[in-house]
Amino acid sequence: MKVLEAVQAALAAEHAAVYGYGVVGARVGDGRRAEAVAAHGAHRARRDALARTVRDLGGLPEASAAAYALPFAVPDEDAAVRLAAELEDRVSGVYSDLVRAATGPLRQDAASALREAAVRAVRWRGSGVAFPGLAERS
Fold first, then answer.
1. What pLDDT digit, counting tens, does each position of 108-128 carry?
2. What is the mean pLDDT of residues 3-18?
3. How far is CA 132 from CA 14, 22, 37, 49, in A?
């Protein structure tokens, strides 16, 4: 995967995460709302940085969609928590691809973003995986 393609994929995932955290924030209880707000802000900051990176690489940043299909219905707090963990897993996957494609400071930033997403996934889910961002093999 080329670097610009990997950055665009990460940008698309961040757009989706920002949207998804809007749903999470609306459904999660008061006890976890601050966590959802913080994650939303972190994804917005990463999204904005990635848009700048795309431009720096000579590309046109992919625009956000008006809406995104959620992987499952989110009628309550339990589903919102599951959605937050799923969003972080998806973001981890694209940052894993970016780590493989990039070099230098961009690779370091991608590794930091992967680590942050993995930590948030563990907080939401209550458990982690051995190699976040890599597809699990059975």
1. 999 999 999 999 999 999 865
2. 98
3. 17, 24, 23, 22
**CA 63 to CA 36: how far, in whole Å?**
23
| Segment 39-64, tens digit of pLDDT | 999 999 999 999 999 999 999 999 99
Tokens for 102?
């990039």
104-125 and 77-101 helices cross at what angle (nearest 10)?
Answer: 160
Identity of the residue numbered 111: A
Q: What ranges in the chain are assigned the alpha helix state H? A: 3-27, 30-56, 77-101, 104-125
Q: Cα(31)–Cα(8) distance, rounded to whole angstroms?
A: 34
Euclidean distance between CA atoms 138 and 126, whole angstroms: 21
Please give the DSSP secondary-structure letter assigned to residue 94. H
Whole-Å CA distances, 137 to 50, 83, 98, 119: 29, 22, 20, 21
